[in-house]
Design goal:
InterPro entries: DUF247_pln (IPR004158). Pfam families: DUF247 (PF03140). It contains eleven helices and no strands. With about 240 residues, it is mainly α. The relative contact order is 0.12.
Length: about 240
Amino acid sequence: MDKSDDDIKSLATCLRGKLENLYSLSEDRCIYQAPPKSRNSFSTPLTISIGPLHHGKEELKAMEKHKLRYLKQFLQRTQVSLEDFLIFIKSKEKMLRNCFAETIPLASQDFVEMILLDAIFLIEFLLLFSIREFVTSGDPIFGKPWLLMELMRDIWSIENQIPFFILEDLFKLAKIGEPDESISILISPLCGHICELLLIVKSLLEINFSRAKHFVDLIRLCIEPSDHQLDIEIEAITPTYRL
């Protein structure tokens, strides 16, 4: 056997190792990074990181203290302990990781902490946005209209998403709403300005929420509705004339 044969065997062994270590692609993948050529200011967050894709970036760290403040507020609204929330998220870790197209390098403890802070921040933010009476005079976000607008923009960034299911599950676990109440009731008010901007009939939000994977996916489903949903939309916008 000459050297070229040895090289081939060595290369084959190397490739087999790569194939064995190749993880299978999850059908649950729904959160991606935008391709470099199509990436723009609306693809990436400018003020706050939600999810792992921009987690830990220096320019976004200023909001981490606000996440802690909102976590503290949220825990005061519920009788569920911090430990119970962490245990619940830990039980969903594999499912959560499978939602991201990229492998998330965070250690388990760091990943669970990130999901807790980001998910609870969003739930508390949605709660305050929907029920302004809950906003305190010293609120670090709602007291600054410019910051509020920047955060709303970042929530719709394609690389700044976490799965809806974890928001729904944590909201129900906290038991701060009615027994059968969905977090969609808090998401609808936030979607209002997007609906007006994109000419989306608000009824489509409720119809599509159960199928949506995250905020951006919800808008996608509303922009590309099914034929049945189009009939609903046409009925909603068709004026009625009296003869």
